[in-house]
Structures are given as structure tokens and as C-alpha cells.
Write a structure and sequence with these properties.
disordered N terminus; single chain; mainly beta; Immunoglobulin-like; L,D-transpeptidase catalytic domain-like; elongated
Amino acid sequence: MITRRTVVHAAVAGSTIGLLAACTRGEDGQATADPDRPPIATITADPEDGATDVGVTDGVELTVSKGKLTEVTLTNPAGKQVKGTIAEDGKSWRVDEPLGYGKKYTYTAKAMGDDDKPVELTGSFTTVKPKSLVRATLNPIDDAVVGVGMPISVRFDSPVKNRKAAEKALKVSTSPEVEGSWGWLHDQQVDWRPKEYWPADTEVEVTAKLYGVHYGGGAYGKADVTTKFRIGRNQVVKVHTPDHQMKVYRDGKLYKTYPCSNGEDANPDLNTPNGTVIVMTKEPTSIFDNERYGYTDVKKKWCCRISNHGEYIHENEENRANIGKRNTSHGCINLFEADAKDYFDSAMIGDPVEITGSKADFPKTSDVWDWLLDWDSWRGLSAL
């Protein structure tokens, strides 16, 4: 059990030679020294001497009453001094850097009392030792330029039990200001998405101060992570499957139209499902396999993956006769090769793809299903 605070009335440190002693008044009214009076300054330590399981980011503070601190040192087991600062008024000292896990720290604090008597306090404490350390990663990465539908994703390499603690450590700053919310897709991933698509050219900075955060069950954050990225131009793909056309909009205006063939209309298992997804990867070539439907090792060009459910936008010259006329694919959006290349060159990771008109909806099994929910439902996934 951690006891965070102790008050120690420290003894006089060393000789009082050269210092003004406490005084009393003699019969003649002249000041005389009173060497027996105890120092009036009191140094307080937080955490107290002997404390255990101290959080590595909880902070260390030493304060003095009826005096001013003159020197404070906090050292790690290797004898290296931890950075800290005495306040301008001399009343307190605070640590300026995180501590290490499972380490014993020793402190010494010296102060001069208002009675000009010195006091000193020494002690030590031990920081918490995690059962496990959980690594987190952030996406998009530094300096990325992404589409207006791109969510921010924090992924953990182990399940997080205390989602509130983790989410409180996350901060999103944008220019211009953008309304958004965190939502937990599962216990190893939390995403932040805007209420509506990002404004073009938004600058985004994410700070995840996860070091020292207790995720529950003795698991703690391994390190802080940060990222800075930018939103690119506004481009949105819209496909109403019965129309056999893929329309590309820039800044809300129709930019290009491509004939397409979508998933089979009659079979919901083969539909190009309804919902808003995003371009997740861009692959100049990709191999498609589906033994259930009788094909393996099929190579296609200019492929933009829009889900982990199996849907892509890609060329399919083998289906040329149906492109723009009938929906005959197994869920992908098929384009002529020249059109697929033209779209591929214009596409950006994070571009929204809005699909309507099918019998089936996208399942929430992909890495990115943030836009399959309305705003209120999305906010309901926050732990806060």
C-alpha cells in the first residue's frame, strides 16, 4: 500500500556556527541566543520515506514550511540525479521527468528555516514494478498526408482492461478546430474520428502520454507516442450499385465518372456491401484467392483495398463485357484497366468510399469501420 505523504521535523544539520541562532530577551532587554530551541522549519516528502509501488508519473514533491529549500537531490539506483526544480519562492521542489519502473530512488532535501536554523530530510521510495508492459502504436504516422475520412488509430499489443485510463491519456489537437471523439473498436484498438469528414488541409497532432498508465491487471504503458500529419484534398467516391457507375467527387463537385461492375445483386454474400469505408491500401498488383468460388492466384492491377472483408476497387479486364452494364463481381468494384489506373493515381489512403443500393451491409469486422456508425453511436463507444 502506498502512503503518499509524511511530515518530518528534521534535526539541525551540523553546527550552527556562522548562523543566526534563535534569540530570547534577557533581563536587560538584550537579545541572547537560545540554542536549545528546536528548528521551526518542517520538510514534507511526497511520497514518504519507505513508500512502495509509487507511480512513475505520479510526481515527487518536497515542500517546506517556515523556511526555504536550499538544495534537493533525487537519485536513481545508478546514482544519477533526477531532474527537478525548486520553486521561485523556495517552498517546494518537484521532479521534472518520469521515473523508471521498479526502481528505488533516494532523496535528500535541505532547507533554511525562518529562524535561520538549517534542517535536512532524507528518505527513499520504490516505484511500481509492472507485471507486463504494453506497447502502443499510432496511425497515421508522422508527416503522412491522408484523405478526409482517415481515422486516428491507437493500437495496443495486449488487451486494455482500464479503457478510461488509456483514453484519458490521449489528446488530439487540430488546426482548424475539428469536433471528434474516441471510440473503442475492441480492447486493443481505439480510434478518433471527426463528426464529419475532415476539412481539407487540416493539420493534426496527436499526443498519447501512455507511459506509466495502469491498464489494469498489473499491465502498464511502455512509452508515450506522438504523431503529426496532414489531411489532403477532399475526394470522396460514391457508388450506387444498381447504376454501374463509380463517381468521384472533389470538394463536393463531380470530378470523374467510371463505368463499373459491382458485386452480384441477387446474392448478399457477393454484394458490394452498403456503408462508408475508406481506401486502406494502394497496391499496384494484388493476388486474389477464393477457393469457395473456384479461383486462386488471380492477379489484378491498380488495387485499392477498402475493407478487410475482401472488397477492393481494381481493374478486371476479364469482366470487361459486364463493366458499366451488370453487377457480376464477387464484391469488388471492377473497372477497365485504364480507368483503374487513372483512379489509382488520384486516390489517397483515407479517402471515403460511400456505397449504397446493395442488399447487404458492411460487417463490422474490418480494421476500419468507424464510418459505419452514425455520430451518436460512435460517441457511445468512448470509455469516457
